[in-house]
Write a structure and sequence with these properties.
39% of the residues are buried. The chain has 270 residues and is of the alpha+beta class. The chain contains 7 helices and 13 strands. A hairpin with a 2-residue loop joins strand 8 and strand 9. The chain is elongated.
């Protein structure tokens, strides 16, 4: 059947939000966003409406791909196919030309995250040249019992973002990169030698980043920051984009591992 690729820029945020919700119908993890949250979330991640795509079968939308971009890197921030069109080989047929178009525009690498137990999704992305780079996890604090006073101080977001962008030499998952916080509704905190950023999409606090300078690590600074944050925001959760190397830190601060985990995947486009 003929399917036509239409740039997402031709649709409103309301239309894209509705179509994306339709395409994720029946998915293992429910996906439904209010329109303002769609705009704020994907905008902060570098939404490119020119590169994002909706595939149409006449007047019916078949699939949606949301593309975010930073420099010469792009990310498949969301991709889903409507239930009636699944199992027909559309995934590779739709994404391969999209990746080729990004390559022609100078994009050198493409990233994505996929739920780790989504075996068909992982297989699809591997067939397109993606390889798993690391596991990503989410953590949630416990309801605090006895409260110990901790001097958690709020600081300005943008000066902290500038500092982190120049100080951090480690490559971070897309959602934890300081560039995300430039337009995201968030607050920044400092505790001793540690700093953290908490976002507020739809007024829900979510830990986006924690950072301790290398010379202050292994001294309990990160653990105390996590405990202080959980006191201020009880049962505070992270995004499901935390590298596995942080597991010991979160466990030491009393955070639980969420049942959902993801794979970060990368494909070279050059």
């Amino acid at each position: 059947m003929p399917v036509t690729a239409v740039p997402a820029i031709r649709f409103s945020c309301e239309q894209l939000t509705a179509m994306l919700g339709d395409c994720f119908e029946g998915y293992s993890i429910p996906f439904s966003l209010p329109v303002p949250v769609f705009a704020q979330r994907f905008g902060s991640e570098g939404l490119s409406l020119v590169d994002s795509c909706v595939w149409m079968d006449g007047d019916n939308h078949v699939a949606v791909a949301i593309i975010t971009r930073r420099g010469q890197s792009a990310r498949l921030a969301a991709f889903a196919i409507r239930p009636a069109y699944r199992g027909k080989g559309f995934g590779k047929k739709l994404l391969a030309p999209l990746m080729a178009a990004l390559s022609n525009e100078g994009v050198q690498e493409m990233w994505l995250e996929v739920i780790s137990d989504n075996q068909p999704g992982v297989a699809l992305y591997k067939s397109l040249g993606f390889t798993i780079t690391q596991g990503l996890f989410g953590y949630q604090g416990m309801q605090p019992g006895q409260v110990t006073a901790r001097s958690l101080k709020e600081t300005e977001v943008m000066p902290l973002v500038r500092t982190l962008m120049s100080a951090s030499k480690e490559r971070l998952p897309w959602l934890m990169d300081p560039a995300t916080f430039i337009t995201l509704p968030c607050r920044a905190f400092v505790h001793q030698q540690a700093c953290a950023v908490v976002s507020f999409l739809a007024d829900k606090p979510q830990l986006r980043m924690i950072y301790v300078a290398p010379e202050w690590r292994q001294r309990g600074q990160g653990r105390e920051m996590l405990r202080a944050l959980n006191q201020q925001f009880p049962a505070l959760a992270t995004v499901v984009s935390v590298p596995e190397s942080f597991a010991t830190l979160f466990a030491s601060a009393g955070y639980m591992t969420m049942p959902i985990s993801q794979y970060e995947m990368r494909a070279a486009l050059i």
